[in-house]
């Protein structure tokens, strides 16, 4: 039987995820939920237009109203949280109650670690809950582990990442493509690295450096930002000497 999916949050990331689920997830139905009904409707219409189907449908939903979320997710097999990270702990508990698989775009290491505390309850409910599945943490941390698997004995692991615009515009030379709460948290939450084999807290907006890439990218600046390593430092403590990532920006952003 084809699964039913839901995406909570119908912004850019949520709409793109709904499209992928509808196209590649063998879905029977994809529910796009947002606190603003018109936003959800536009997203569902876009997905349906691109696919030439009526597989996506829109609903209005306030994720702070957990009983309403629970009712909306009744009968859903799996859902993605594409809302700001601070809602994910409550949504994790809803996922367990309705027995729906969940992943989220994350962005806050402390909340992700609290979500891990529901491991036993999730197993008992027969579901998987996978936090922090965005660009970084998410895709980037997955690629870090993949690269480590290609080596006999990795010791030092470095990552530089950044969602940067092709045509930067002052004053920040940056393009925000996700909720601003996730961006500001990167600059406020301490980074967690491995240094000298131990979990180490590092202040954000420090350790500025210049990184050269082949054209057309060219020169970028890199500095410490929070959240990018997810829970990897605790997983690999004592097994890696160094584990860290820095965010990349066009020159001038750091200043």
Commentary on this structure:
The protein is an alpha/beta fold and about 260 residues long. It folds into two domains: about 130 residues, Rossmann fold (3-Layer(aba) Sandwich), CATH 3.40.50.720; about 110 residues, Dihydrodipicolinate Reductase, domain 2, CATH 3.30.360. The chain contains nine helices and twelve strands. The protein has a six-stranded parallel β-sheet with strand order 3-2-1-4-5-6, with helices on both faces. Strands 7, 8, 9, 10, 11 and 12 form a six-stranded mixed β-sheet that branches. The longest helix is centred in the N-terminal third of the chain and has 15 residues.
Blueprint (SSEs and pairs):
Elements: E1 4-8, H1 12-24, E2 29-34, H2 37-51, E3 56-60, H3 66-72, E4 78-81, H4 88-98, E5 101-104, H5 109-116, H6 119-125, E6 129-130, H7 139-149, E7 156-161, H8 180-188, E8 191-195, E9 198-202, E10 209-212, E11 219-224, H9 232-236, E12 242-249
Parallel strand pairs: 1-2, 1-4, 2-3, 4-5, 5-6, 7-12
Antiparallel strand pairs: 8-9, 8-12, 10-11, 11-12
Helix pairs in contact: 1-2, 3-4
């Amino acid at each position: 039987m084809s699964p039913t999916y839901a995406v909570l949050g119908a912004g850019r990331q949520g709409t793109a995820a709904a499209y992928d689920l509808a196209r590649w997830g063998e879905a029977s139905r994809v529910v796009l939920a947002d606190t603003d009904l018109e936003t959800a409707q536009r997203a569902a219409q876009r997905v349906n237009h691109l696919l030439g189907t009526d597989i996506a449908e829109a609903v209005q939903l306030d994720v702070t109203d957990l009983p309403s979320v629970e009712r909306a997710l009744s009968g859903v097999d799996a859902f993605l949280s594409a809302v700001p990270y601070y809602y994910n702990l409550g949504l994790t508990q809803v996922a367990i109650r309705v027995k729906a698989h969940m992943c989220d775009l994350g962005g806050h290491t402390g909340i992700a670690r609290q979500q891990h505390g529901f491991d036993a309850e999730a197993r008992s409910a027969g579901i998987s809950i996978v936090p922090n599945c965005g660009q970084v943490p998410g895709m980037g941390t997955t690629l870090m582990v993949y690269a480590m698997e290609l080596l006999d004995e990795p010791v030092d692991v470095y990552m530089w990442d950044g969602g940067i615009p092709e045509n930067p515009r002052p004053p920040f030379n940056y393009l925000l493509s996700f909720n601003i709460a996730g961006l500001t948290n990167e600059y406020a939450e301490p980074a967690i690295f491995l240094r000298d084999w131990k979990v180490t807290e590092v202040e954000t907006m420090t350790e500025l450096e210049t990184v050269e890439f082949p054209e057309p990218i060219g020169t970028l600046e890199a500095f410490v930002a929070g959240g990018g390593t997810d829970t990897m430092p605790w997983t690999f403590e004592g097994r890696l000497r160094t584990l860290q990532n820095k965010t990349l920006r066009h020159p001038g952003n750091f200043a």
